[in-house]
Specification:
There is one protein chain. The chain is built from 8 helices and 13 strands. It has 238 residues and is α/β, with parallel strands linked by helices. Strand 8 and strand 9 form a beta hairpin. The chain starts with a strand and ends with a strand. About 3% of the residues have low confidence. This is Response regulator transcription factor.
């Protein structure tokens, strides 16, 4: 069985070395980048299971790197930063990061977050193989390929955006609270602001509208949270 591949992006040698020690001790394969541009170059040349991304980098900040990665990949991204403000965490999650860890941290917490993100991605891949293609008015969701088509054109969604859309589309009659969605998508260990859900929902709506969908795929249920709106399912097929 091949080792899990991790890309560590941090301009401080001490932090990269510390992360490498923690991760390799657990049997993970680690590659390192000292800048945002080096990280993006490595992303184009290698396949990784997760990216550990520092926010403060010398050439471009971690937010910019995260946005650039999300243009081409849904890989799990764990942001690392010394800044603990909630607004920073919400912003990072809103632009596509999957989790957020504040420095300094214990190795056990780091590894728990890493394995949680990788495990969640693996579970999604293994459980969607036999799931049905969901087809709605102008909208098709392919769980196996993790693709969304609107009027026949593929629309790129981040990992969290896709998971939110898929979870709600499979439970069309159910209204979800923000807390429920956080538990389902981010996991019970998530300790950030549940309002991060709002940012991802807004992104889904904006992308759907930009792609020409004539209705809002996720409706707000006042006093509760959110509910999927497929304007009526056309069919479900293998």
């Amino acid at each position: 069985m091949s080792k899990l591949q991790v890309l560590v992006v941090d301009d401080e040698w001490n932090m990269r070395n510390l992360l490498r020690i923690y991760l390799t001790k657990e049997g993970l394969e680690v590659k390192e980048a000292m800048s945002g541009h080096e990280a993006l170059s490595m992303m184009s040349r290698y396949t990784f299971d997760i990216v550990l991304l520092d926010v403060m980098l010398p050439d471009m900040d971690g937010w910019q790197v995260c946005k650039a990665i999300r243009e081409t990949s849904n890989i799990a991204i764990l942001m690392l930063t010394a800044r603990s403000e909630t607004k920073d965490k919400v912003y990072g999650l809103g632009i596509g990061a999957d989790d957020y860890l504040t420095k300094p941290f214990e190795p056990e917490e780091l590894l728990a977050r890493v394995y949680s993100l990788i495990r969640r991605a693996a579970l999604t891949q293994t459980t969607t193989v036999q799931e049905q293609v969901m087809e709605f008015l102008g909208l098709k969701i392919y769980p196996e390929g993790r693709e969304v088509y609107i009027h026949g054109t593929v629309v790129d969604f981040t990992q969290k955006e896709f998971d939110l859309l898929m979870t709600m589309s499979k439970n069309q009659q159910r209204a979800f609270s923000r807390e429920e969605l956080v538990d389902l998508i981010w996991g019970f260990e998530y300790v950030g602001d549940v309002r991060a859900v709002d940012t991802h929902i807004k992104n889904i709506r904006d992308k759907a509208q930009k792609a020409g969908l004539s209705y809002n795929p996720i409706q707000t249920v006042w006093g509760v949270g959110y509910k999927f709106n497929g304007a009526g399912a056309l069919n479900e097929k293998k």
